[in-house]
Fold this protein.
Amino acid sequence: MLLPAPGFPVPFHGGVLSLIWEGIKKAAELLWTLDPEVLGITLFSLKVSILATGVSLAIGGATGMALALARFPGRRLVISLVNTGMGLPPVVVGLFVTILLWRNGPLGFLDILYTPSAIILAQTVIATPIIAGISLAAIQQLPPDLRLQILSLGASRWQTVLWLAREARLPLMAAVMAGFGGVISEVGASIMVGGNIKGSTRVLTTATVMETGKGNFDTAIALSLILMVLMFAVNGALTHIQQRDRPR
């Protein structure tokens, strides 16, 4: 029989189901009473993830569309780098962003390490390749002659890009959801660049890790459930927008 590692808290005695049930009750209690700390962590998690997703959409969406429409030497190499970045481990991002923002690092003069700005920066690095890769595929799956047809109607280059984005709006919205899901659920980079500071840089994922390490499994489960509810609410709203104008 496997025994817990020395010094690691024994998680429960009443079974898995009872532990999960205690976590559900704890989550309901925290939500019903609007616990200030949990509410603050939840709103902060939502804020930084939405900001990071927005910046990533601007950078990644433009990059993906440019790669889909432009032709230049080394294009396939750049696309390969983007596709590789879609699976970039968050801890690797956290490590390199920490080095960049360290006091003696290239961006140390910004003095934003262990601040919300550092978390947004790290999450942007994580989400940008995801959005860029899906945006690239979304534009490439459009009919090859569509761009020429739009240009033949007298559309400018900017109007052409907007029209193509409109035609690929369903997969582009999926890119936004994938980017948001990737950043709000990551934990490694947020801990490394944010420090999990109470009232400043603590998000739902880092709080869950902390409570698990302390042996507070009911609170950890409660925070996990709140995170999943938050993700469902945001993705539900985005899915409604996506499917509302779906071609019949």
The two ends are 57 Å apart (CA to CA).
